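PROTEIN–LIGAND DATA SHEET

This sheet pairs a single protein chain with one bound small molecule, flavin-adenine dinucleotide, given as SMILES. Inputs appear in the order they were entered. The predicted three-dimensional arrangement of chain and ligand is reported afterwards as a token string under its own label.
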Amino acid sequence: MAERLVVVGGDAAGMAAASQARRRDPSLDIVALERGTRTSYSACGIPYLVAGDVESPDDLVARTPDEFRQEHRIDVRMRHEATAIDLDARTVEVRDLVHERTFRLGFDQLMVGTGARPIRPDLPGIDGPHIRGVQTLDDGCRMLGEARELECRDVVVVGSGFIGLEMAEAFVRWGAKVTMVEANERPMSRQLDPDVGDRLVTAVRGLGIDARFGEAVEGFEEGLVHTASGPLRADLVVLGLGVAPEATLAEEAGLELGTRGSIRVNRRQATSTPGVWAAGDCAETYHRVSQRRIHIALGTVANKTARIAGVNIGGGYATFPGVVGTAITKVCGTEVARTGLSTEEAERAGFATVSATVETTTIAGYLPDAQPMVVKAIAEQVTGRLLGMQIVGGSGAAKRIDTAATALSAEMTVDDVVELDLSYAPPFSSTWDPVQVAARVVAGKV
Ligand SMILES: Cc1cc2nc3c(=O)[nH]c(=O)nc-3n(C[C@H](O)[C@H](O)[C@H](O)COP(=O)(O)OP(=O)(O)OC[C@H]3O[C@@H](n4cnc5c(N)ncnc54)[C@H](O)[C@@H]3O)c2cc1C
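PREDICTION REPORTED AS:
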């Protein structure tokens, strides 16, 4: 009988691993369980669905269940939830949510791709209606449906991580009055140094978002969000406080957990039990600069780690080298990106740091379309090794972070970065690329 792979979770991690395993081993019997209504969707596209740039949720689906069934011979079971895993018996308990029946499914190999869940703060009234986090496309559709049904006028976004920022902008464009409440003094405070994060404050307010930084939420009541400075009207509350790994199923099964409760995996994405693999938002990964295990919930990482899991499930051999912590977003026309470690993260990892923040322009400053941009480079004080970079600026600024991400992967010093033969013509850049300008200034301090 063919070996059976059971996959739990039908989005980026689950289906990328399943597809890769199928490619490697045509004989595998693959069953994928997804409790929601769509497979392989782009949760990253949800803000653009809310804003109206994307017409239908189906446009965000890369591959439907039928495509997986027909083209990849994967037995995709929609609205099927894995409710327990028995690692000794090697079975998964499955609940068919449509027909309300429960059955067991045996496996030889198991791939866990259960993703993450939005953090819900333990505050009075948090279980009230219309307080929503967003992780899956079903969450996004439910939120949009609710906003339409309520003819929602006032939206309060709690937290200002990248999902909070993107959802705030989306609801402004949807037509709501948006208030953002953030306990820290600036947005994305875990990702950006304070001097860089400060540049975002103006951008957030620029679109008409009533951004309350340094103000914590104290509780919720129907139609109201309470903060220290009084109640705010809210037809809908969007939680943007980050996510936690969805690892309850794995934990209850007895799989070893790691950072922030994510599933511990080795470099092959193997868990603590042979033949059981995990990848994506539910799994731990490794930071190549801090050399520490971390939990990072990004689609880029989910796809890459799942590919590695799929190769190994299919009988190949592949290892994931880890991440350097690269992320990018756009807030109200201002682009933001970061890679490596922030100053605080670098110091926590034991590095003595030097840094430089430079103000420059996205293209040659004398051209009419030139827009301001700020680049911060962080290096190790004695060796000059690049440790991190952050960028905030106008159109064309943020994607330059990829040069720094590449330099981090190659463990370059800031001098190495200065010497890179990067492209230049006035419509694209200043003579020295902004990344190199920042590297050059910090090199002078090493
Ligand atoms: C609004 C938003 C914007 C984003 N923007 C970006 C971006 O710009 N760039 C970026 O890199 N990342 C972005 N992300 C993050 C990215 O979407 C996630 O990192 C990615 O979706 C993770 O994929 P995953 O497969 O690990 O988890 P998920 O996408 O969460 O998928 C897990 C799936 O498993 C299912 N599931 C869970 N438990 C069970 C169970 N017990 N049984 C059956 N099914 C189960 C869930 O229903 C879900 O469909 C964004 C996320 C959001 C919400």
